[in-house]
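Q: Structure tokens for this one, please.
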Amino acid sequence: MVQNRNIADAIFIVTEERSCPLYNIGEELKVANYCIETPQAKPACMILVEKLIELTSQKQSFQRFSPLGTKKNRFQCGGCHQGRISFEYKKEKGFTTVQMKLLSETEERRRRQHLDRFFGRLRDFNLFESLDDDALSDLTALLELKTYPPRKVILKKGEPGTHLFFMLSGKIAVVADDGQNIAEMGTGEIFGEMSLLSGEPVSCSIHSMEETEVALLSNKNFKFVLKKYPVLQLFLLKVLVNRAQAMALRSGSITSGMSGELGDVNIVELCQLINSSQKTGTIDLIMDDGKGNIFFNEGEIVHARYKKLVDKEALFTLMGRESGHFTYTKGIPPQLLDQPPFGGFMSLIMEGVQWVDEQGGGQDMGED
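A: Here is the predicted structure, written as tokens:
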């Protein structure tokens, strides 16, 4: 037998949260027509639902009187192993007058236009390629828009990460401690994810280089989205690995398995990193027109090949290439361990740079 309940309509607002995985301070919880409406794109927590049913089905006031005036009672969801929220009564219904209803409808249309604008621009982000339109619409509802003027500090090194940033327009710079720009990002890129995933403070300051428009996803909503759409975790892991490798290269270190694009790190820089660390390993290069290899023994170049070219001719030609993919791996073939260098490292690099300048690029040298 189903018990009849006289459930009152009411709107509550979250006033405090302690590690709640779902809801944020300021979000509304609505009870109307025997239905409970949670914030946009958020699921309904059954512990919270049970508490709201209990409150709205009892014949008691959500407010109390005191010598200082009417006070709103504060309620708690009951909590779970992850966290809890506190909330208080806001009002009985969503609209008290026709004018208020019209204002709310206007605000809702504005919000939908805002979301539609976000949706179209976020669809172009590689991060969201795996999400269908419904999932992306849910995520869009969790975003807020912000515009930064030129030369504005967006993130400051050492501060806790609070948001994931999606660049809708403009340009930002990753700034080193000495004030030098060590990287730049533009439309379609994301930043802020490293500190959110690791829980560590922001590792580098980020400044706007020009007027920059971003969409922000709060830390809590970020974790909620990752939990709801696990496929995004794989993409962000790849982003983290690539950026960690780029930071390692910029700091002057290289490790086995590291890979990247020649547009970001050129061959001369790679060779200098391996030479300075006296590593024994191989740079494998894949380019549109062929493959190449450069072999190092304790930092010295003992062999190079590219198409039909070998050693000095191959090295110089590869030094002139500006696009392609590289991978560095530890070790060289056994037969090269006793192979002497085919030239002193610095003299080879200087001669190669001069050759590239004279050739005006990376034309093949001495090939039929």
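A few notes: The two ends are 91 Å apart (CA to CA). The chain has a mean pLDDT of 80.
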